[in-house]
Amino acid sequence: MADKGTKTESAGKRDTGKSSWQERKLEKVVRDDIDIISRKTRDQSDFISMLNTHDNVLYQLRMNMGRNRNLTFDKAQEFIERSLRIKEEINLLNAEMCQLMNWDYRPPRGFTNPLMVTEQGKRTKGASDLPDDGTDHMNSSAV
Predict the structure, then answer these.
(1) b/e map of 59-74 (b: 16 or more CB within 10 Å)?
(2) pLDDT averaged over 10-residue windows placed end to end, the chain, 143 residues
(3) pTM flag (> 0.85)
(4) Nearest to 56 by CA among 33, 78, 37, 72
(5) How far is CA 1 from CA 9, 51, 137, 138, in A?
(6) Cβ atoms within 10 Å of 80's Cβ, excluding its own
(7) Angle at 58 between CA 57 and CA 59, to 5 degrees
């Protein structure tokens, strides 16, 4: 009687030289430009899918601005600023939900808790507080 491995191979499966999706994922884990995101909710799966697309589109936008007649530097800057405001809005949303549940909010690296009170007694700026003056409030090298 043949063992399971031989039976599977003889049942029509052949080695095509392609790695499985699990093997491809494990290969990507060691790259320094890959992060692992757990998903506990369907909302998170939606965010992950949108962020993967956003990452690719934003990269292409930055690489192609000025090369495509329709993609001006001003329009690219507008998209980048909108992206930054959305990140700040998500940071604020997370802080507000944590506050409601009496949890300490620890924002991700590079962000501050928008609900923290400064020494002057003022709330730190959140996304809705940012002026729409064309300046990059997150990173001076946004473009």
Answers:
(1) eebeeebeeeeeeeee
(2) 50 63 83 78 87 94 90 93 96 96 95 78 52 43 38
(3) no
(4) 33
(5) 14, 51, 69, 66
(6) 19
(7) 90
